[in-house]
Amino acid sequence: MGFEQLWSNLGLGFTVVLDPANLFYCFIGCLIGTLIGVLPGVGPVSTIAILLPLTFNLEPTGALIMLAGIFYGAQYGGSTAAILLRIPGESTSIVTVLDGYEMARQGRAGIALGIAALASFVAGCIATLFVAAIGEPLSRIALYFGPQEYFVLMLLGLMLASALAQGSVFKAFLMVVAGLLLSTVGSDPETGMVRNTMGIDSLWDGIDFAPLAIGLLGLPEILQQLAAGPEARRITSKIGRLLPGWRDLRMSTGPALRGTVIGGFLGILPGSGPIIAPFASYAAEKKLAADPSRFGRGAIEGVAGPEAANNAAAQTSFIPLLTLGIPPNAIMALMVGAMMIQGIVPGPQVMTSNPDLFWGVIVSMWIGNLMLIVINLPLIGIWVRLLQVPQRVLLPAIVAFCCIGVFSINNSAADVMITVGFGLLGYLLVNFGFEPAPLILGFVLGGPIEEKLRQSLILSHGDMLTFVERPVSGGMLAALGAVLLLAIMTRSFRKARQWLGPTGG
Amino acid sequence: MIKSKDFAGGILLFAVGTFFLWLSLPLPVGSLQHFGPGMLPKTLSTFLAIGGAMLTLKAAARGSSLLEDFHWRPTLSLLAAFVVFALLIRSAGLVVAAPCSLTLAYYAEGGRSFGELAAIVIAVTAGCILLFKTALGLPIPLLTISW
Q1: Which of A159, A162, A469, B127 is 20 to 30 A off residue A327, Cα-Cα?
Q2: Which residue did the predictor score with more confidence, A240 or B127?
Q3: Residue A258's pLDDT band (cuts 50, 70, 90)
Q4: Most confident region among A243-247, A326-330, B29-33, B49-53 by mean pLDDT
């Protein structure tokens, strides 16, 4: 593929995104994403889950553009809470807390927020180009995959997701199994026989994605906020100037670019790539710094690098989703859910069958980042005030919003009850130290995995060796073995994180 | 030991696994070449049950981190807010369901001021109507009872 092709594709993307309606969805997405994401303790995953119903009535491209906007907004909101309150919205902003909050204490909160947005934007620009360039060739290769390759690839994705999970690998694996099991509920794809519906009619076409996602990902976070009880929130200092000076910019350029590369690479990996990315970038900057002791005391590099890594990883994690249809993490699993509800089966064919959607989403990543800078940053005063609104006012509003959102999808009160059931299950699981994210991943991949496994075995007349004998799938199985090695390696990552993150939580 | 995370979590997964295994008992397994509807549900639920049992046994033998305190009262009142909404949305409509749900959620959160509650109820209900009815045009029943 030549450069002209790339430009013409990006051009198509721009015409899609610059359509006033889509621009509006992108804007709204960034705005409400920040609005919810800035609330302490509410990370991007639950923000997207909670806001999912809003997008169901849009046309597919608009819906995905809005969801992507929500994602970036939520991430930026998380950084805002981290810098101003020392409360990381979720694990990706734990690192930002270290130096960002110190900067805020030194009266440079505005600069920290500004550099976070700018570094994210730079990373976003580069990563968008990268996604656009690598997307087409990858999805071309994927068109030659048979069911065996797809099956092994998805298996690989699930294994990596549990191996790179935050807590115990075994527990994450069990969550994947539980997700796969839940995906089998409903009528059997071949015989139409009804499976495990417990006599509930509305489960005949399977468990709906939105109640599951909102129940398992959204409710436990709301409940944990409740359990934490009312807390005194104080913004430590004035925001001050937003735009960093030349000296700050010069100091941040290197870290931001390195962060982009680190994050861009880690983001493609299934599992917690985006979660590891900021840690890796922070560790790298600390190693490279002339005076490492400045880190943790308000070093601007410690904000620029991780924030860039964070955003680049967020962007490149779209690659496996858009090209192979395989979500590498829970956020992308939510995107898959949204696509399926829109009637689009994610996979390499999306690029040819819905080019406007494919390129529109890619370009919207860039536009979304631009919006964060142009629109969101000047609104920082509003977000700060929002941080000071007491929980007892915000949480009921979120609850009502979730209720109506879930109900509105199918006009079904039963869906709200199912959400409650999954909410309770999610609360228990989180309390027992399980992460619900791998479950969502297993649930989303369950249907395709079953389909490809069946197809493979029909083709091979029931011979399991077919997965090993075909060169590509055999190679991928070998990679699966390498996952075990990676799992051991992540232990050292985890140690690094413990060392880095005494402020986490 | 019994109060450890893995012990309790293992039991939960074991229960879910065996329950699903029991549910899928009547489903035919088929053969490797032609999967029946029961092949994956049975395999996966067995995995889950065994995995859960292993987790519990391991926690019993070696221990694991202790459970945090459950906050049953706020948790249950918040879940009740959802249930109340589900029960009222069709029979009474949004104008009744949302305020009831908001009230429960507000008290779950430890709010005590009636004036504040009234302000939340009016603002959020109006906001949701504007967003979901006016802006998105969804067919949500507003008021289905008449006196």
Answers
A1: A469
A2: B127
A3: very high
A4: B49-53
Please report the ipTM that was assigned to this predicted complex.
0.91
CB contact, 8 Å: B72 with chain A?
Answer: no
C-beta atoms of A180 and B40 within 8 A: yes
Token couple for B142: 């507003």
Distance from CA of B145 to the nearest CA of A (A): 17
Report pLDDT for A398: 85
CA A71, A171, A340, B129 torsion-angle sign? negative
pTM of the predicted structure, to 2 decimals: 0.83
Q: How large is the greatest C-alpha to C-alpha distance in chain B, in angstroms?
A: 67
Structure-token match 């115990």, residue found: A168
Q: Is B11 within 8 Å of chain A by CB?
A: no
Rounded to an integer, what distance in angstroms lies between the CA atom of residue A205 and that of residue A212?
14
Q: State the first-to-last Cα distance of chain A, in angstroms, to the nearest integer.
A: 46
**Residue whose C-alpha is closest to residue A104's, from A231, A302, A240:** A240
Which of A195, A392, A461 shows the shortest C-beta gap to B24? A195
Distance between CA atoms of residues A317 and A101, nearest Å: 28
A170 vs B: CB within 8 A: yes
> Is A364 in contact with A21 (CB distance < 8 Å)?
no
- In degrees, rounded to 5, the angle at the alpha carbon of residue A439 between the alpha carbons of residues A190 and A433 is 155
Tell me which amino acid residue A302 is: G
Look at residue A255 and tell me whether its pLDDT is greater than 80. Answer: yes
Cβ contact B109–A392 (<8 Å): yes
A86 touching B (Cβ < 8 Å): no
User: What confidence tens digit (pLDDT) does each residue in A124-135 have?
Assistant: 889 988 888 887
Burial class (CB in 10 A: 0-12, 13-18, 19+), A428: middle
DSSP state of A239: -
Tokens 């962007």 -> residue: A315
Compare CB distances from A432 to B5, B75, B90 and report the shortest one's residue. B5
Pair A165, A493: CB distance under 8 Å = no
In which element (H, E) is residue B100 found?
A: helix B94-108
Helix axes A109-142, A355-371, angle to 10 degrees: 170
Which of these, B21, B22, B40, lies nearest to B30 by C-alpha position? B40
Quick one: tokens of A131?
């996604």
Size of interface A-B (CB pairs under 8 A): 195
Residue type at A291?
Answer: D
Residue A236 above 60 pLDDT?
no
User: Looking at residue A503, what DSSP letter applies?
Assistant: T
**Residue position matching structure tokens 């009528």:** A187
- Residues 88 through 127 of chain B touching chain A, CB cutoff 8 Å: 89-90, 94, 97-98, 101-102, 105-106, 108-111, 116, 120, 124-125, 127
Which residues in chain A (372-411) have CB-CB distances under 8 A to chain B?
391-393, 395-397, 399-404, 407-408, 411
User: CA angle, A180 as apex, A316 and B65 as ends, to 5°?
Assistant: 85
Of B36, B37, B109, the CB nearest to A226: B109
* Angle at alpha carbon of residue A265, lines to A262 and A267, rounded to 5°: 105
CA distances A297 to A99, A108, A292, A302, B28, Å, are: 6, 12, 10, 9, 64
Beta-bridge mates of residue B30: B35
pLDDT recorded at residue B87: 92
Sequence-distant (≥ 6) Cβ neighbours of residue A478 within 8 angstroms? none
Closest by CA position to A98, among listed A115, A117, A79, A111: A79
